[in-house]
């Protein structure tokens, strides 16, 4: 089993920045793909960004140029640097990880709130 714990969320003004972190523990040697999803009130959960074990990345169109995903394999941690935040970025952000090289992973964090005030 893998446990994922997010941190770094909170309240920020529009135009500001936040950095989310997600630390993995447990059977971490099996982890390859990691990513961030988000779910706003009344909406479905959506992919924000994803990163492979060798650093390949993908982003949702809505965050391209503003968000950057990265990972530190030595620390078993994935990060999401969020700049130029907009009110529509307000959501609960979830860390996701899996054993496959790419795609949706089997493991989820508990979620962390990000609120952007306009």
What features would you highlight for this structure?
118 residues; 11 strands; globular; seven-stranded mixed β-sheet; mainly beta; single chain; 0% helix
Task: Summarize this entry quickly.
This protein has 118 residues and is mostly beta strands. It contains no helices and 11 strands. Strand 7 (67-72) and strand 8 (77-82) form a beta hairpin.
| Uncertain parts | none
Class by SSE composition = mainly beta
Question: On the 0-100 scale, what is the average pLDDT?
Answer: 96
Q: Calculate Rg over CA atoms.
A: 13 Å
Shape: globular
The fraction of residues in strands falls at: over 45%
Q: What's the number of extended β-strand segments?
A: 11
Fraction of residues in H or I helices = under 10%
H/E element string?
EEEEEEEEEEE
End-to-end separation in angstroms reads 40 Å
The description of the largest β-sheet is:
7 strands, mixed
Q: How many helical elements?
A: 0
What would you note in describing this structure?
The protein is mostly beta strands and 118 residues long. The chain is built from no helices and 11 strands.
How do the helices and strands line up, and which of them pair or pack?
Blueprint: E1 2-7, E2 10-13, E3 18-26, E4 34-39, E5 46-51, E6 57-59, E7 67-72, E8 77-82, E9 91-97, E10 107-108, E11 112-117
Parallel strand pairs: 2-11
Antiparallel strand pairs: 1-3, 3-8, 4-5, 4-9, 5-6, 7-8, 9-10, 9-11
């Amino acid at each position: 089993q893998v446990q994922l714990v997010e941190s770094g969320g909170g309240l920020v003004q529009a135009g500001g920045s936040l950095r989310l972190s997600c630390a993995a523990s447990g059977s971490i040697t099996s982890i390859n793909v990691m990513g961030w999803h988000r779910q706003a009130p009344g909406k479905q959960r959506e992919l924000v960004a994803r990163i492979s074990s060798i650093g390949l990345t993908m982003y949702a169109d809505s965050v391209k140029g503003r968000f950057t995903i990265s990972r530190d394999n030595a620390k078993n941690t994935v990060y999401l640097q969020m700049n130029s935040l907009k009110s529509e970025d307000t959501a609960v952000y979830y860390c996701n990880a899996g054993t496959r090289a790419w795609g949706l992973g089997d493991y989820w964090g508990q979620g962390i709130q990000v609120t952007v005030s306009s």
